[in-house]
Amino acid sequence: MNRAAAEIQEEIARTKKHLDLLEVALHRLQNECNHTFEGNEYYQICVKCRLTKVLYY
Ligand SMILES: [Zn+2]
Fold it and tell me: Which domain holds residue 7?
């Protein structure tokens, strides 16, 4: 097996795992947030946790 390819695959796997952890941490923060939304009638973002809401009318 190509050693460089194996190292790249390992790095991808590590990075994906890290990304999962970051998303879990962000979602936990957003679930616990007492949101303060700013924006307009189409798109709002919480100034505290960056949660975004896209509004469809
Ligand atoms: Zn929030």
Answer: 3-54
Question: Mind listing the pLDDT tens digit for each residue in 1-57?
Answer: 789 999 999 999 999 999 999 999 999 999 999 999 999 999 999 999 999 999 986
Q: How far apart are CA 33 and CA 48, in angstroms?
A: 7
Instruction: Give which of 47, 44, 50, 53 is closest to 25, Cα–Cα.
Output: 50
The CA 11 to ligand 1 mean position distance, Å, reads 32
> How far does residue 57's CA lie from ligand 1's centre (Å)?
22
Ligand 1 (ion): residues with CB under 5 Å are 33, 35, 46, 48-49, 51
